Sequence to fold (340 residues):
Amino acid sequence: MIPSLFALAIGSAVQPTAAPTIDNSVTAIRTEYGDVLAAADPGLTPATQFQAGSISKWACSVAILRMVDSDRFTLDSTIGDVLPGYEGKGAATIRVRDLLANRSGLADGLMPALREQGPEALLMMDIGALEAANMFAAGDPAAPRDSDYSYDLVNWIMVQAILEHQSSQPIADYLADDLFGQQAANLADTFIASGIPDLNDAPAVEGDVMPVPGWLQCAGGMVTTPVDLIGFMYWVEQDALSVDGVEALMEPTTWNEDGTAYTLGGSILIDAETDQRVFWLSGSNGAFKSRAAYNLWTGEAFAAMNAVDDAGALSRAVETWYWGEQLAEPIMPPPAPPGD
Fold:
């Protein structure tokens, strides 16, 4: 359970002396003084690694933005500009930003293939991300670009293919060099992988876990710890990106039902009272659940992970961390549609 003392400390000037303890989870916080505190439920340690699920998308988005910062291409470059081997019909119109925002309108041939062939058959495919993009996402676009939000995995096959083509490296090697291995980031326990990765101080997993195909690592292959997640968010805001890059991660592209907003590869919270913007990340691969938040105004942060298929406990914990109590209502109403 989350100690009431912790909730009081977050809501006052009292410096917290410990991270909260959440059943079956590891948690970490970064205080306003820059200290990172971690706590592990019995059977786990602060060094226990977990699969981070969709936070992989945010990591690959950061990698794309670092390429943009280095002038390799822009967010408005088309797929054809950055991935000449792609044979799909949207190559000349779909932009990099559309992929990162899940607003590409790409044809989704992956889910029908999963239903028809089963995940085991797809996992056996020894193909690269570009070949997978041409296999699963080269049909007639399902919608005009930037017209609809659709959380399709084919967007992230494409993002991985772009990163691999532009870097001339497999995705795991490139992210190890450009993100997780950066000395300033100090992410010793973070990597991206396919299949079912080996984990340090591995948690007892309660529930199913989907092995990650090699060509889908940007969708869900990230492995990390809560402490590293906080370090990663801090590095992204402080050192990894230009001002324009950080602003791109804070700019809403689609409003969620709970009042948070999707940006590029992840979500943000915009505090209705203070206008503070907070990285508001979540990830899931079956039993593995993750929540992470970073206040860009104060530098305070929170991360929690478990392997017992309990997203609810983590959501309650991050809300307690930010507001001092669990929310009963949505964070803020989404804006009215244009013309209303």
Observations:
- The first strand starts at residue 25 and ends at 30.
- Residues 267 and 280 are 5 Å apart (CA to CA).
- Residues 4-52+197-215+225-323 form one domain.
- The two ends are 43 Å apart (CA to CA).
